[in-house]
Write a structure and sequence with these properties.
By secondary structure, the protein is an all-beta fold. The protein has three domains: 29-94 and 294-389, Immunoglobulin-like (Sandwich), CATH 2.60.40; 109-288, Exo-inulinase, domain 1 (Jelly Rolls), CATH 2.60.120.560; 409-760, Fucose-specific lectin (Neuraminidase, 6 Propeller). Helices cover 1% and strands 43% of the residues. It is globular, with a radius of gyration of 29 Å.
Length: 761
């Protein structure tokens, strides 16, 4: 007799045991076949997209998900109940059980979907009566839900049947005057739970309800605003719960932490709306903590967790009892069968760079095996093994979110360098190097890398055999120096790390740039709450006093970009909250020239603050090119002479250019100068395609040329590479669609020596 098959997508066995009749030795189970599928977009039960034949090893590409399909046979007549996990070992090392961590963006989020009543109940339990309503509302700013109650309250709870543990509950909402709503967590029943009271015009209150009796744990007196959007969040860390309230993109919100005295799960958790109440809801999210391991189970866009498999692998002759496709879960659904066979398919990725930081090498071999919940391996004659391939020009890692320059930089011997992070969940500062013209990349001097993370306001400049870095975090500003491979005594090494030069009030957006004068002194610009600040490091290594770059009251300056021009004059451009852009010079004696308005109409949102491209010095003409993005997406250029005069504005491209492509307040474009020309790379808004456009010395801009149309490009940064065997190149690195995550940084080149005047095309 056979008992079919898999439990539901949410079913699982207790971690310490199993249900039903079990043989804990696994002796009557065996893996009888496997096959490796390289086509990640293939349907679960399609007999296509295989990387190799049945029970054959394969070559798999780093940072490109693939799938492993297993056939398992239950040989005896006894019904066995199993729940399988997947283990891996690298180069004959120790076995590790794979976690479920997504790629390219490692997210664990359950969002209340209010687009329809049916979708609202996917993952959420909504308790209300017929008089309550959830309605969709559309405005120019976007879509939101309006929740309203009459006779009875409404409760929306995120269910706890998830494959990960939620640690954060957040909402963006809008209350009417005197309106009230609660975030609830550890909601065991109507008489036992915790809640955060949020009432317009009054403060925040953390409450424990036990046996129906209320106990106030904490009060914060703050006038919660009405009729505007606010953000509230609860975050659990062991026995502590932190609550935060944000109401302005510039002004710091409030946050407080309560010791609960016991470690409780966050879920069930959600939102409670009293009777006769109303709230507008932009989102309600449950989130879990994430990581970026070297190998992990990922999500599949083509089937849901627990989808039934069909008999594709022909090894076992026994009757088929469906196994399941695994989708972003560490364990397969429960399978019960006797005298039968089933199949399981796991989506997997092997990353190039990962948390640690760590890196896999081309040629690494990875073996995989099935285990049960007690991590007992399923016997197998042959295990699936893949050999790792790292594609040419692949960097992987994470793009640094900055409007400044970060490379690629070229040493005197032709070696290339770029600044990036290893993973979205491990934001260390890594200098990666290529000594073969950009074909392969690896970190250098990782043992001595800076320890400061939070890489958002970062900029670099290269002078000779040193790469200078300025880095603003939420709290401090740091200076670092890296020596390239042509340094005579200390090649490929960090010289200065984590040198703190300032601790300004946290700016709305972390921003930074720097320039190095001919005498070796360093001029740095960075943000504060309302102003930009300048500070100079002497040739002796001493930072001088701060100089305030004046701004209009209530209109913070941001998005500074700098470059060194002729006669040691530093050119500085920046944005202002009213949508204007400004230009000044820092003279050799440190004097700031008067501010000149560079442009208007850049946009007034925080996202538009990084609206100016890296500045481009044109040494053959003695000018500096200042290119900026208008709110409508167009790129325009003005040129500054050493005397400070600005040219008339010229349109660079009418194609709309993206900004803030993935939580990065910067325009998606880059610019360099070569000979008597200026070259711009830009990411088209909407399509995320990458284009190149150039002009010769008279300012005429040609038609944009399409470079990348098979990826949703998010970031791009480049530089002139002079020692290429074929001549000068515009070497650039772009994010080929990481969604703000990792694994997609790619190097490419444009031959500059073959460029013609765009008027001749």
């Amino acid at each position: 007799m056979l008992l079919a098959g898999c439990g539901g997508a949410g079913s699982s066995l207790p971690a310490g045991g199993a249900a039903g009749s079990l043989d804990n030795t696994g002796a009557t189970l065996a893996q009888t076949a496997f096959r490796i599928r390289s086509d990640f977009d293939a349907d679960l039960n399609a007999n296509a997209g295989w990387a190799a034949d049945l029970n054959e090893d394969a070559v798999i590409t780093a940072d490109q998900p693939f799938r492993l399909r297993f056939e398992v046979e239950s040989a005896g007549s006894q019904i066995l109940t199993r729940q399988f996990a997947l283990q891996v070992r690298r180069n004959q090392g120790s076995w590790e059980t794979l976690a479920a961590e997504d790629f390219p963006y490692p997210e664990k989020k359950l969002r209340l979907d209010f687009s329809s009543p049916a979708k609202a109940r996917q993952g959420w339990r909504i308790v209300s009566d017929a008089s309550s309503a959830i309605s969709r509302n559309m405005t120019e700013a976007g879509e939101f839900a309006r929740l309203s109650t009459k006779r009875s309250p409404m409760l929306a709870l995120g269910v706890d049947r998830l494959h990960w543990k939620p640690v954060e509950l957040s909402a963006r909402l809008r209350l009417p005057e005197h309106g009230r709503v609660n975030l609830v967590f550890a909601h065991f029943d109507a008489d036992n739970f915790y809640r955060l009271d949020i009432e317009a015009g009054r403060g925040l209150r953390m409450v424990r309800v036990e046996g129906g009796r209320e106990l106030t744990l904490a009060d914060r007196e703050v006038a919660v605003i009405a009729d505007d959007w606010i953000e509230v969040k609860l975050e659990r860390d062991g026995s502590r719960i932190s609550a935060s309230y944000e109401w302005d993109p510039v002004i710091d919100g409030i946050e407080f932490t309560v010791e609960l005295g016991e470690t409780l799960p966050l879920v069930p958790a959600g939102l409670y709306l009293p009777a006769q109440a109303l709230v507008d809801l932009d989102y309600l999210d449950l989130e879990g903590s994430t990581s970026t391991p070297g190998v992990s189970i990922v999500s599949s866009p083509h089937y849901t967790h627990g989808s039934a498999t069909r008999d594709l692998l022909p090894a076992s002759p026994r009757p088929f009892v469906a196994g399941a496709g695994i989708d972003y879960a560490p364990y397969a659904p429960v399978w019960s069968a006797g005298g039968a066979q089933g199949e399981w398919e796991f989506p997997v990725v092997i990353r190039y760079f990962f948390d640690g930081p760590g890196m896999h090498e081309a040629g690494d071999r990875f073996e995989f095996r099935l285990v049960d919940r007690q991590e007992s391996p399923v016997p197998a004659d042959t295990l699936p093994t893949v050999t790792l391939r790292v594609p040419d020009r692949h960097l992987g890692g994470v793009f640094v979110e900055t409007p400044g320059r970060i490379g690629p930089w070229e040493a005197g011997n032709g070696d290339l360098y770029f600044l990036q992070e290893p993973a979205e969940t491990d934001n260390r500062m890594m200098t990666v190097k290529s000594d073969d013209g950009g074909l392969s990349w690896r970190e250098v001097d990782g043992a001595n890398r800076p320890q400061t993370g939070d890489l958002e306001g970062v900029a670099q400049v290269q002078v000779g055999d040193r790469i200078h870095t300025l880095h603003q975090t939420s709290e401090h500003v740091f200076y670092h120096v890296f020596r390239t491979s042509d340094h005579p005594t200390h090649p490929d090494s960090w010289e200065i790390v984590d040198e703190k030069l300032a601790s300004p009030l946290e700016p709305p957006v972390q921003v930074a740039d720097l320039a190095v004068r001919s005498d070796g002194s360093v001029v740095a610009v960075y943000g504060s709450r309302e102003h930009l600040l300048l500070r100079t490091r002497s040739t002796g290594g001493v930072w001088g006093e701060e100089t305030v770059v004046d701004s209009a009251p209530g209109l913070p300056d941001s998005g500074p970009v700098m470059t060194l021009g002729s006669r040691d004059i530093i050119h500085l451009a920046y944005t202002r909250r009213d949508g204007t852009a400004w230009y000044r010079q820092v003279l050799p004696d440190g004097t700031l020239t008067r501010a000149q308005q560079l442009a208007t109409g850049l946009g007034t949102s925080v996202e538009a603050s990084g609206g100016i491209l890296p500045l481009v010095h044109e040494p053959t003409r003695g000018t500096v090119s200042l290119i900026y993005r208008l709110e409508n997406g167009e790129l325009w250029e003005r040129r500054a002479h050493s005397g400070g005069n600005l040219s008339e504005a010229q349109q660079v491209s009418a194609r709309p250019v993206v900004t803030n492509a993935a939580d990065a307040e910067q325009v998606g474009a880059d610019a360099v100068a070569y000979a008597d020309s200026v070259h711009v790379l830009f990411i088209e808004e909407g399509s995320k395609r990458l284009f190149h456009v150039s002009r010769q010395g008279d300012g005429f801009w040609g038609e944009p040329e399409l470079l990348v149309d098979d990826s949703e490009v998010l970031w791009v940064r480049g530089n002139v590479i002079k020692s290429h065997a074929e001549g000068a190149m515009y070497g650039y690195i772009y994010d080929a669609g990481s969604l703000g995550g990792s694994g997609m940084n790619t190097y490419a080149e444009i031959p500059l020596h073959k460029m013609t005047d765009p008027r001749e095309k």
